[in-house]
Amino acid sequence: MVRDLFWDDDFRLKWDDMLIHAETLEECPNTGTMVVRWVRKFPFFCSDREYIIGHRIWESGRAYYCVTKGVPCPSDLRRNKPRRVDLYYSSWYIHAVESKKEDGQLTACEVLLFHHEKMGIPWEIAKLGVQKIDPGLRAYQRERDNLMLHSHGALSWLRSTPKLVQIS
Fold it and tell me: Of 24, 19, 45, which Cα lies nearest the Cα of 36?
């Protein structure tokens, strides 16, 4: 579920207060690789930021990996506002771990995140925008349980790896 939350830009618009626009520019049905455009809201004294990022997710064993980086996209013209962030790298690794119950069951997960971007604002201001994921994850879990929610992005990834993932 954490994998799907990170990959679901449609739902991210609901829980990430800084994300004000997300659209898929390109996608590869064979690999699930996507190029997306994000616009993130910044405080009034900074202009909003635009990201053109390519990302890919894959499963290896019982873990998931995602690599995301800023990419050029000639079809999406550069604008003065929002300000485009070109230097962007973000990677994460998700794997199942034993829960705090210590019952031997792998019912929790660990996420290792490596992230770097050059936003053009001081770190002290940028860290104010760090989101807590737990409320977004809980909302995603409720909505998904009620509606069997899968966004276009999540379904694209699932279609590109049908032998590895089951949808119940």
Answer: 24
